[in-house]
């Protein structure tokens, strides 16, 4: 399809989307209303994946504004996972004893329509300045129980390799911090940014273990360029895990999830979490039920090896994450457990720990 605006730069306004042929001109006002409320950016790598002739395109559904985003449900929350009550200092969330979140920036290469931090991310929002970073580093250094620092945002890989190297060096100088984990969508959103300089910035000159958690939701996001970006990270010594969000009309079918998880494993990215969609404002049209999610996980367990299976997780508002099944074990009769076998049949199992009853 010929377009007036080449998709060679990030599209940040409804007019850009229309000029690029990704949205109909008749939708201009509706798109403007959403874009006034929530940040919009579609970088070239993702714009190129959208089929404008497919009204159900799973890439468009994740990144193009939708009028339903302005319908806020009664249970939806500005801060659905409860970062605020666990924020110890600006940019630093301490929810679990042995790890902290360090939010370096509030910008992203792409703004996902279902983002759980959609009220706080966007262009022009402040990231952590030098003084704020210094206070966060002091906080971490003063607490020997902090074993892992999760670098998030926004997308922390939006920073330059020079800034990333500086943050890495400063964290690596804290002896009790053993693991640095970067959460990012950059390898799929702007793979060209994930070059050797960025990979070196995360890994070189320190002995810490570095993980990158890649956020991707549909196998089409894992293009040759995205795979090459991940390969560059891995070849520099990064270990990778995946994070996906279960989204209606994007990946809420077993075949799509199976293809996504297999692709991750083939890329040396261990499937880690499949998140139940959070109660972010204006995202009901993208949210599945937990029963649907459990049914999909049951089907994935039939199809995939344990290596390719993520855990299905719910972030309980202001409480933290828990796996939400499905469960394969329950109590049966006479003290036996009732188990579901891989074929889906129910079987009794008596726990024999400590020997046999007389
Ligand atoms: S990349 Fe992450 S933080 Fe940024 S908009 Fe998407 S989900 Fe939100």
Give the structure's gist in a few sentences.
The protein is of the alpha/beta class and 358 residues long.
Can you characterise this structure?
By secondary structure, the protein is α/β, with parallel strands linked by helices. Helices cover 28% and strands 19% of the residues. The chain is built from eleven helices and 13 strands. It has helices at residues 14-19, 28-37, 44-47, 58-63, 130-141, 161-172, 186-189, 196-203, 224-235, 254-266, 290-303, and strands at residues 87-89, 92-96, 99-103, 148-152, 179-184, 209-215, 239-246, 269-276, 311-316, 320-323, 329-331, 337-340, 346-349. The protein has a ten-stranded mixed beta sheet with strand order 1-2-3-4-5-6-7-8-9-10. Strands 11-12-13 form a three-stranded antiparallel beta sheet, with no helix packed on it. β7 (239-246), α10 and β8 (269-276) form a beta-alpha-beta unit. The longest helix is centred in the C-terminal third of the chain and has 14 residues, at 290-303. The chain is globular and about 70 Å long. The chain binds iron/sulfur cluster (SF4). Iron/sulfur cluster binds next to loops. Iron/sulfur cluster (SF4) binds at residues 108, 111-112, 115, 117, 121, 153-155, 185, 215.
Q: Distance between termini?
A: 77 Å
Point out poorly predicted stretches: none
Sketch the major β-sheet: 10 strands, mixed
- The pLDDT mean sits at 95
Write the element-wise H/E pattern from the N-terminal end onward. Answer: HHHHEEEHEHEHHEHEHEHEEEEE
Helix content: 25-40%
Quick one: overall form? globular
Strands in their spatial order, largest beta sheet: 1-2-3-4-5-6-7-8-9-10
Total helix count?
11
What ligand species are in this complex? iron/sulfur cluster
Beta strand count = 13
Radius of gyration: 22 Å
Per DSSP, what share of the residues sits in E-state strands of 2 or more residues? 15-25%
| Class by SSE composition | alpha/beta
């Amino acid at each position: 399809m010929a377009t007036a605006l080449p998709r060679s730069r990030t599209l940040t306004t409804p007019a850009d989307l229309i000029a690029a042929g990704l949205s109909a001109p008749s939708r201009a006002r509706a798109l403007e209303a959403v874009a006034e409320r929530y940040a919009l950016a579609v970088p070239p790598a993702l714009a190129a994946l959208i089929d404008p002739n497919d009204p159900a395109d799973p890439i468009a559904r994740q990144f193009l504004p939708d009028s339903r985003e302005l319908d806020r449900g009664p249970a939806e929350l500005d801060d659905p996972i409860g970062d605020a009550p666990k924020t110890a200092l600006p940019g630093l969330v301490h929810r679990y004893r042995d790890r902290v979140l360090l939010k370096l920036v509030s910008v992203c290469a792409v703004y996902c329509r279902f983002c759980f931090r959609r009220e706080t991310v966007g262009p022009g929002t402040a990231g952590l300045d030098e003084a704020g970073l210094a206070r966060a580093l002091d906080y971490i250094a003063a607490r020997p129980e902090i074993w892992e620092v999760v670098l998030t945002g926004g997308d922390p890989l939006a920073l330059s390799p020079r800034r990333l190297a500086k943050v890495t060096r400063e964290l690596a100088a804290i002896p009790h911090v053993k693991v640095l984990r970067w959460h990012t969508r950059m390898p799929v959103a702007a793979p060209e940014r994930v070059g050797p300089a960025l990979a070196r910035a995360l890994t070189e000159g320190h002995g810490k273990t570095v993980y990158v958690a890649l956020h991707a939701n549909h196998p089409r996001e894992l293009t040759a360029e995205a795979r090459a970006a991940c390969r560059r990270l891995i070849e520099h010594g990064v270990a990778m895990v995946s994070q996906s969000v279960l989204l209606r009309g994007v990946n809420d079918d077993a075949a799509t999830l199976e293809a996504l998880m297999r692709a991750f494993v083939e890329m040396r990215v261990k499937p880690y979490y499949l998140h139940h969609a959070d109660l972010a404002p204006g995202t009901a049209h993208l949210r599945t039920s937990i029963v649907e999610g459990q049914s999909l996980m049951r089907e994935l367990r039939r199809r995939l090896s344990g290596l390719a299976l993520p855990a299905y997780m719910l972030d309980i508002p202001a409480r933290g994450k828990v796996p939400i099944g499905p469960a394969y074990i329950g109590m049966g009769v006479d003290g036996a457990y009732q188990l579901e076998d891989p074929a889906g049949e129910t079987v009794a199992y008596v726990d024999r720990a400590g020997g046999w009853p007389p």
